[in-house]
Amino acid sequence: MVKIKASKLRDVELITDTGIRLGWVYDLSFDEETGDILVIVAEPDEDLDVSEFVTDHEGLLLIPVNAVKSIGEVIIIDSTKLAVKSKLRRVSMIKEKLQQG
Q1: Domain housing 90
Q2: How far apart are CA 91 and CA 85, in angstroms?
Q3: Over the stretch 40-50, which tens digit does the pLDDT of each residue have?
Q4: Residue at 31 is within a domain
Q5: CATH code, 74
Q6: InterPro entries from the xrefs (predicted)?
Q7: What are phi and psi for residue 99, nearest 5 degrees?
Q8: Nearest-CA neighbor of 29 among 39, 20, 21?
Q9: 53: buried, middle or exposed (CB in 10 Å: 19+, 13-18, 0-12)?
Q10: In the predicted model, is pLDDT for residue 88 greater than 80?
Q11: Which pLDDT band, with edges at 50, 70 and 90, does 101 fall under?
Q12: Measured distance CA(62)–CA(70) in Å, rounded
């Protein structure tokens, strides 16, 4: 396993495996108890419509770390694992239906 310093990731470009430019690494969010990285916090590309993506209160993208396919000159994100609002709505609707019986 290759070790990468978090400081080296700052401002690295994030691109999906389908070629969509998401933005640049701004920060990382960690689980306080385990120390695991939860999400990459990214400054969105100026041409990206962020309305379908999960963002924080400042408009920064929240990209789940399990969506990372590779890290090099750029970070490649698996588009099927990218958290988008439409997926989250579908998941919550399914959960509601299951709870209703």
Answers
A1: 6-100
A2: 10
A3: 999 999 999 88
A4: yes
A5: 2.30.30.240
A6: PRC-brl_dom, PRC_barrel-like_sf
A7: -70, -30
A8: 39
A9: buried
A10: no
A11: low
A12: 17
pLDDT for 97: 61
| Residue 1 resides in a domain | no
Compute φ and ψ for 97, nearest 5 degrees: -65, -40
Is there a domain that residue 94 lies in? yes
How many structural domains compose the chain? 1
Question: Domain for residue 51, yes or no?
Answer: yes
99: pLDDT confidence band, cut at 50, 70 and 90?
low
Per-residue pLDDT tens digits for 23-37: 999 999 988 889 888
Cα distance between residue 15 and residue 22, in whole Å: 6
CB neighbours of residue 41 within 10 Å: 18
